[in-house]
Amino acid sequence: MSNVFKKLWPKRSSVDWSSLNVRLTIEASLLVIVGLGSVAIWTGLRMQQILLTSHTQNIAYIADRFPRDVVANSDMMPVESGIQKTIDAVALPGMSMWVKAPDGRFIAQSVGFDPKASQTMDLIDLAEMPLQPQIYQLGDRSLVLYQSTVNVKGQNLGRVYIVQDVTNDQQALISALQGLVTICIIVMIAILLLLRFRVDRLLQPLEEISQLAGEISADDLSAVQLQFDRAPSEVKNLAQAFNLLLSRLSASWERQRQFVGDASHELRTPLTIVQGYLQSLLRRSQNLTDTQRDALETATSETERTVRLLQDLLDLARADNGQVRFRLEPLVVNELVDEVVTMAKKVDDRTITIQAETLVEAQADRDRLKQVLINLIDNALHYSPIDRPIVIRLTTLNQKAQIQVIDQGVGIALVDQSRVFERFYRVDEARSRSTGGTGLGLAIVKSLVDGMGGDLSLQSKPGEGSTFSISLPIAKMTIGDG
Q: Strands, E, within 292-360: which ranges?
């Protein structure tokens, strides 16, 4: 079950919430910029079109009436004088007009129009081009150009050219667009700040949920509850669903722990009785065949392994339920290690070496630490060749008492090193079964070391062996102090 929590909620959240906040803000900002930018561009083009339409319609109206006005003025004077009078009458401020005969001769022009001036010649050349009604730039001026044929009483007198200077209007339009852009920028900045605030407010409850989930352990399930009074309704619903999930997991975890403890306790007694009968039968029966004796030895061995498994499960269940009491006291680690090594040599004649330059004192539970050392030495003996020694090194490092159990065995691959302390995890299933392991020894070691306030780590390389390191608090008082 504890492995499930590690997969569901790692100790560190995999989500970078600050990056997510920035990314969401940038994405929303891009949408705002594209939206407001599109509005500003459309508004500018529309205003430009309105300005052009207004002036072209006015010029087209003048050009359309121009022949009729020429006819009216020519009744009392020559045609060319009538044309000049018409130009003088209809020309507006900022407007230039001229009429050219089919042979290129200027018939009449508005006041101030000098055909020989260089800038006027550029204007005349531009007016001769096939033009569409639109705004043209000539130097620093903005002009609307228009041309039309002058027919009087069926006679083609030439073409009339009308130029309206809209520089002031164009500058006013540019100023208005600049103001619009400024307003859009201010609005975008305000929207970006508001978006950043809103995104941060929306993500903060999710970040808290993520952090809380990363810190939850099996023992905390029943006590953890999420409360978000000011969060959005969607986040509140998520928090309620999360609380319900925690309640269900807590109930399931409690049922599992209770079942493991009860089952281990109930099964251990009858199996111990069966084990005793099998061992007695092997000792007293002298007329067994080889096949029968092999069968009994196999049954006895499997019964012993099952009893050890149940005892390990019972120890873990007690640790999970908080029933394991630790009596922490100052002790000399060297003495305890000597005692454990002496016990190990009685059941295995393998070479076990102790390396210690000085006395190492630790604050620990003597019985629990003894159990830890027995398990680690037993593990090293199982996975090391017979001719390779086991080394136990005692040191003091960084205000910690350190115990290292070093073997020169098969080693553990890097991919398996982070999981060897999980319950029932086996690096090599076949080898573990052949050595009689239950897959719980290192899990028990980890639980006991944590309970004493220490740390357990592993360094290993396949083919070169493994080093299990225990770090414990240094004794608060030395042996013999009052």
A: 329-332, 352-356
Mean pLDDT of the chain: 77
Query: pLDDT per residue over 309-341, tens digit each?
Result: 666 666 666 666 666 677 888 999 999 999 999
Burial class (CB in 10 A: 0-12, 13-18, 19+), 38: exposed
- Phi first, then psi: what are they for 356, rounded to 5°? -150, 125
- Shared domain for 205 and 265, answered yes or no, is no
C-alpha span between 303 and 282 (Å, rounded): 14
Q: Cβ(25)–Cβ(193) under 8 Å?
A: no
Q: Are 289 and 240 in contact, with CB atoms under 8 Å apart?
A: no
Asked if residue 480 belongs to a domain, the reply is no
What length is written for the chain? 482
- Report residue 152: phi and psi, to 5°: -120, 115
Residue appearing with tokens 């999420």: 226
Q: What is the tally of structural domains in the chain?
A: 3
Per-residue model confidence as pLDDT tens digits over 118-159: 666 667 776 665 566 667 777 777 788 888 888 877 788 888
Pair 14, 434: CB distance under 8 Å: no
pTM of the entire predicted model = 0.47
